[in-house]
Structures are given as C-alpha cells and as structure tokens.
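Handout, page 2. Input:
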Amino acid sequence: MSGSPPVIRLRGAGRRFGSHEALRDLDLTVRPGERVAVLGTSGAGKSTLLALLNGSLEPTTGIVEVFGENLARLTSSRRRPLQRRIGSVSQDLALIEQVRVLHNVNAGRLGRWSTTRALASLIWPHSLGVVRDALDSVDLGWALHERTERLSGGERQRVAIARLLVQAPDLVVADEPVANLDPVRAAGILGLLAASPTVRTLVVSLHQPALAREHCTRVVGLRQGRIVLDHAAADVDDAALDALYALA
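Output:
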C-alpha cells in the first residue's frame, strides 16, 4: 500500500517536559496495513511517541498528522470523530475496575452508540455475542460476568485487548500491551493483534525484540528521544539490536 495516503506522518516532531527533551526531530511515516514495532530502552521515548500518535499529547515542536489531520490544529469537536478511529492500549489500561468485564469490553463500542443506548447497556448489555467472541479470542471467555477488579494484572491487560478488538479502529496504538503476560501468552496476544483483520494499522511499543521481528513488518528504534533505526523487521539483525540497546 505504498501509494496510499499515510495514516501517520511526523515532521520534525519533538516533545519537551519542562527542560527535559523526551523526543526530538522525529520524521516518521506509517502507511495503511503496516505493523510497526517501536523498540528502545526504558526512557528512550516510546510511550511519549505513542501518546503523540493517539492525540493524548501534543508536540512542542514540529507536526504530527494522523489520517491527514494536524492534531494540534483540530478543535475538540473535530478531534472526537478522528480519535474514534484510533484504538489505544495504554500502560494504565484505563479500565473501570468496579464493573463487570463485559462492560469494559463494550466500552470499545461507545463511540458508535448514542448516550441512551450506552446507559441502557449498563442494565441490559448489548452485543454480548461480540463481547464473548472478543474475550474468547484472548482466552477470557469465562470472565464475561466477572468484576474486573477480581482479575489479575495480566487478565486485565487481556480485557483491554478485547475492548480494542470490538472497537475495530482504523489505527491501533498499543503501549507495551503484553508487558504483564508470560512469554507464551504474550506471543499469542501480539500475534492476534498483528493478524486480526479488524486491526487495520498497528503501532506497538515492545520490550521484546524477538516478538517484534516475528509479528511486525517494520521496526523503529528509539534512543535518547531520536529515531536511530527504521527497517523492515526481517532486516533487523542482532548487531542492530545490540547497538540500539547498548549502554550510553
């Protein structure tokens, strides 16, 4: 899809937090259908980059465009429909712990529902078949009616993935979505995200280079807030990874 308009385009993008320059001079283009893994040491800027992509942070320098729109220039009314096209998994998961799992998964569909339908679903849950299928795909079918707070950290992480699957967004931005999972489960969940037809374009931060090379089509490496690696996943060798993770 090299001729398709880009889903994401960064031009000289950077982000500061006070005097700390978390990201600087980023140029990056992601096209429809790509599965992009973002790698780098802790503190390299991975989470900040993904926050720029889903619109939860704005750049302090440069331009971030998603679906051809400069996010920093959009009014809130114009930003909302665009952000409905973006599915996010953050490190805090953004789940409501006190409700049943099915309601957290159904939250992925709220952008398409009226306020009346959303409120009614808290009493008479809608789309239970869709929710059950999504939970089955992450091996949590048994948890449909469980209270979310009773689940383990890894199970809650899988609830967040199921919520993403029912949202069926045009772009998925996932910040370490398999960090709390055992290796076998992590490989299965990342494989599910990468292969799912409902995930049109994927950008995912990872701490596991082996998963990136196996399940993603492209690897972007961050080091001290800069992109120092951007290759097809099949072309990323051990020497490139050693250089990316070498102590400064």
